[in-house]
């Protein structure tokens, strides 16, 4: 059983979906502290040939709260503004007519709980890409919530009967293979290979939101990107 665990990110880059696709079970890590100025509720899209950072406004933001304790702002005008920005920026992209209705459906989703809103977005994109990985929120897994860091990850893996844990490459500084092996779990890190595609006639800007990938590439091409990585 291959397990991957990551915090919920809104419209994350292609590497996030590579991680989902590489696992049998993907856990959205929502019962950990929110990180300000991270990628949980913001990302980057292509606007006029440059990367534009957008954010989803939240209520009573605090790094002392778990992600699943946060809610979207009551003022939903941001939804129309974001949709308008995406529409104007990508309306001439080759897959706009197919992809924009999916993005629209995600953004207008009525659930205002941050982790569930993002979870829905991930489910919707995985459905479009025919990714079959089982996805669940970490807050739905019974465990010792006093555990921290690597110990908490290992407990989640054990609860899911994991034989292999796959993490993003940034986790190399956080987790050690020997400790996982002591718990009968193999540890690997996924490193995304350089991915390049046409973005209108602009110089290519890498690592933008999955929105950008989907607007410029077919499902088949995006699925090919999902396999362009190394497992270390």
In short:
The chain is α/β, with parallel strands linked by helices and 232 residues long. 35% of the residues lie in helices and 17% in strands. A hairpin with a 2-residue loop joins β3 (42-47) and β4 (50-55).
Could you describe the 3D structure shown?
There is one protein chain. This protein has one domain. The protein has 8 helices and 8 strands, in the order E-H-E-E-E-H-H-H-E-H-E-H-E-H-H-E. It has a 6-stranded mixed β-sheet with strand order 5-2-1-6-7-8. A two-stranded antiparallel sheet has the order 3-4. Helix 2 packs antiparallel against helix 3 and helix 3 runs antiparallel to helix 7.
Key attributes of the depicted protein:
single chain; 232 residues; alpha/beta; two-stranded antiparallel sheet; 8 strands
What topology emerges from the helices and strands here?
Elements: E1 2-6, H1 14-22, E2 25-28, E3 42-47, E4 50-55, H2 77-90, H3 96-107, H4 114-128, E5 134-137, H5 149-159, E6 164-168, H6 177-182, E7 186-192, H7 210-216, H8 219-226, E8 229-231
Parallel strand pairs: 1-2, 1-6, 2-5, 6-7
Antiparallel strand pairs: 3-4, 7-8
Helix pairs in contact: 2-3, 3-4, 3-7
* Count of β-strands: 8
Q: Roughly how many Å is the radius of gyration?
A: 18 Å
Main structural class: alpha/beta
- Total domain units: 1
For the biggest β-sheet, the strand order reads 5-2-1-6-7-8
Could you give the distance between the termini? 18 Å
Principal-axes geometry comes out as globular
Q: What is the count of DSSP helices, taking H or I runs of 4+ residues? A: 8
